[in-house]
Amino acid sequence: MHKLPLLAGGLALSFNLMAAVPNNEPVQPIEAAKATDPAKVELGKQLFFDPRLSRSGFISCNSCHNLSMGGSDNLPTSIGHNWQQGPINSPTVLNSSLNLAQFWDGRAADLKEQAAGPIANPKEMAFTHTLALDVLNSIPQYREAFRSIYQKDEITLDAVTDAIAQFEETLVTPNSRFDQWLNGDAKALTATELEGYQLFKNTGCVACHNGPALGGNSFQKMGVVEAYQTDNPAEGVAGLTGADADRFKFKVPTLRNVELTYPYFHDGAYWNLEEAVDVMARLQLGRKLQDEEIAKIVAFLKTLTGEQPSFQLPILPPSTAATPRPQPFE
Amino acid sequence: MHKLPLLAGGLALSFNLMAAVPNNEPVQPIEAAKATDPAKVELGKQLFFDPRLSRSGFISCNSCHNLSMGGSDNLPTSIGHNWQQGPINSPTVLNSSLNLAQFWDGRAADLKEQAAGPIANPKEMAFTHTLALDVLNSIPQYREAFRSIYQKDEITLDAVTDAIAQFEETLVTPNSRFDQWLNGDAKALTATELEGYQLFKNTGCVACHNGPALGGNSFQKMGVVEAYQTDNPAEGVAGLTGADADRFKFKVPTLRNVELTYPYFHDGAYWNLEEAVDVMARLQLGRKLQDEEIAKIVAFLKTLTGEQPSFQLPILPPSTAATPRPQPFE
After folding, report:
1. Same topology for domains B26-30+177-304 and B38-169, yes or no?
2. What residues of chain B lie within 8 A of the CB of A274, using their CB?
3. pLDDT at residue A34, as a whole number
4. Measured between beta carbons, which residues in chain B are less than 8 angstroms from residue A82?
5. What residues of chain A score a pLDDT lower than 50?
6. Interior angle at CA B249, CA B278 and CA B10, nearest 5
C-alpha cells in the first residue's frame, strides 16, 4: 500500500503531499489497499482469526480488533485470558497501517512488531511465542502455506507476524462520504456536515487530527490546557522513556470510522462522540463549544466512516494429534 | 431447506427416503441450503456474530459455534461470561438443522428455541432477553431490518430467534468426498476409505450414526455395553424427564465434519478420532477394534468434511447513545 510521505518521513516532503491533496485540505483521502501478495494476505487473515494463538484457544486478534465492529471491541478496556481486564482501550486495527507507530505509546515500530505483543502478553492471549509456533507447526496446512510463501520448513515468529501485518495492511476504509467530497463530489456532504468540517478546522482539532487517517501521525499530551481526569494509570510515552515531558503523551488516534470505535480515549471512558468532542475541545484547546457546534462536528465525524473491509470468513485448518491443546482453565 | 422425512416423521416415510438414496445406503448426501429469504438470513448472520447479545459485549453465538472452526469452539467445554467453565461440550452448529431436537438432551425442539437459551444462561452469555432486545431496539439499522422483514415496530425475541435460526438453516456442508461417492463418483474415495465405510457399517456404528447427518436423529445411552467413565455430571435426557431409563441418554451427535469438531463426546474428553472410535466401539457395541480397523474407519470419517459455509464477515451497525452498555466486569 502506498504510504504518504508525511507519515514516513516527516514534514520535508510536504510539497509532494500538497500536490496530491484536493483543495489543499489538511486531510487526504484513504487509498484503497493494494494487496501485493494475495496468498500472504489470506494466510495472515487466517492467523488473525485463529484463537489457537492464545493459551485458551478462545482469543484471537479479531476478539479485540473485531472486524465486524470497526476493528475494535467496543469495550472500555479489553477482556483478556481468564477474563482479565486490560489496561488500556484497544485501538482499531482499521487504517492502522497509517500510524507512525503502534500501541497508544508507540512502543512497536510497525504492525509486524505489534502483532507479536498480545500473543505473549499474560493479560491478553497469555501464550508464548514458542507454543504458538508449536501449534502452527503441528498443522500441515499451515506448514504448507508458510513453506510455499516463506520458503522455510519451519514456521517462524517472523513469518507469522509478517503475514498478520500483510493482512492488516489491507484493512483500510476508503470511499467515505468525506473522501468522496475530498475527491470532488460537492454533493457528498450536507451543509451541516461541511459546517462541521469548517468548525473542526477552525477550532483547532485538525492540528493533531490531520493526514489521511486524521490522526495516527503524532504523539500529543492528553490534557494540554486542562488535566484529563481518569482512574487509568497509563502514563503514555513516559512509560517507555521515563521522561517527565512524555507523561500522558499518547499517539493521537485516527478519527476514521470514529462512529464505530466507541468508547473513546485511551481509557475508553466516553461512549458518545458529543462528549468526546466537548472534552477534547476543553482539555486540548481551551475551548468550550456550544451544543450546536458539537452537533455539527459530530455530523462531520460521521462522514468519516469508510467502506469496511469485506472478505470471506476464513476457514481454519484443523489441529492434529500433535497440536498442543488449549489450556483455558489451567 | 428440504428436510428428509425420516427426521421429521419417523420411519413411516422411509419408502420416499429409499427412493432418494444412491445404492440404498443408510447415509444420504447433505443437500445444499436453499435460502428462502436472503434478507432474513443476512439479518440472522449479523445477530449470530453480534456480541452485544451478551452481558459482556464480548460473547456472540459465533464465539462457541465458531464458523471458522467447524461450527464449534474446539474446547472440551466452553468459556462463558466471566470465564466460567461450561457444563457440556458445545455441539457444532453445522448441519444442526438436521437434528431431531437441539442441545445434547434435546430440551429445545428446534433451532429457534435453542437460540434463546445461551443469551440468558448465566454461565454463557449471561444476559437477559429484555436487555438483549433493548440493545437491538436502540440501533436504527436493526430496527429497520426487523421492521422490513417482520412488519413490526418493536423487535421481539420471537423475531430475533427466528432470524438466527434462518441463518443457521443455511449452515449445511454439502459435497463432501463421501457425498460425491454417494452421488455416484466411484473415484471420490480411496480403497482404504471405502473399507472404513464398510467397517463402519459392519461394526454397527451406523445403527445410530445414519441419515444425512450420520447422527442427530435419535437419543441413545452413552455406555450401553460398558459404562462411560467421566467427571462430567450431565445426566442427559434424565435431567428433563427424571426417568431412570433416560440416564446418560444423549442426542447422537452428527459425524459430518467430525475431523473439525474435536474434542469429542458430551464431556469433550477425547481429542483424537482414533480414541473416540475405540471408545465408541467398546462401550456401545462391545467390540474391541484393531488399530488398523480404527485407522480405516477414521479415514472414512475424514471424508465427511463438506464444503464449509462461505460468506462475507458481517458488518454490525453501531450502538447509539440509547444502547445499554456492556457490563464485562460488573
Report:
1. yes
2. 321
3. 85
4. 83
5. 1-21
6. 100
pLDDT band at B16 (very low <50, low <70, confident <90, very high): very low
- Which of A270, A315, A323 best probes binding to B when mutated, by most B CB atoms within 10 angstroms? A315
For residue B2, pLDDT beyond 70: no
Which of A74, A78, A94, A125 should one mutate to test binding to chain B, selecting the residue with the greatest count of B CBs within 10 A? A74
Domain A175-304: CATH architecture, name and number where available: Orthogonal Bundle (1.10)
Minimal C-alpha gap between A299 and chain B (Å): 14
How many C-beta atoms surround the C-beta of residue A286 within 10 A?
A: 11
Q: Which residues of A touch B319 (CB under 8 A)?
A: 74, 262, 271
> Where exactly are the structural domains of chain B?
26-30+177-304, 38-169
Helix (H, G, I), strand (E, B) or coil at B300: helix
Catalytic residue from among A31, A113, A124, A154: A124
> 3-state SS of A66-126?
ECCCCCECCCCCCECHHHCECCCCCCCCCCHHHCCCECCCCCECCHHHHHHHHHHCCCCCC
Q: What are the cell numbers at A320?
A: 492434529
Query: Which residues of chain B have a CB within 8 Å of the CB of A49?
Result: 68
Active-site annotation holder among B42, B124, B168, B193: B124
**A101 to chain B, closest Cα gap in Å:** 27
A142-166 as b/e, with b when 16 or more CB fall inside 10 Å?
bbebbeebbeeeebebebbbbbbbb
Cell of A318: 484443523
Q: Which of A97, A113, A75 minimizes the C-alpha distance to A173? A: A97
Grid coordinates belonging to B269: 474428553
Q: Report d(CA A273, CA A201) in Å as an integer.
A: 17
Substitution target in A43, A67, A75, A308 with the highest count of B β-carbons within 10 Å is A75
State how far residue B49 is from chain A, nearest Cα, in angstroms. Answer: 8
Tell me if residue B128 falls in helix, strand or coil. coil
Confidence class for position B23, pLDDT limits 50, 70, 90 = low
Q: Which class is B26-30+177-304 in CATH?
A: mainly alpha
Sort B163 into a burial class: Cβ within 10 Å, 0-12 / 13-18 / 19+.
buried
**Residue A235 annotated in active site:** no
Which CATH superfamily hosts domain B38-169?
A: Cytochrome c-like domain (1.10.760.10)
ipTM for the complex?
Answer: 0.92
Name the residue facing B75 among A68, A318, A328 (closest C-beta): A328
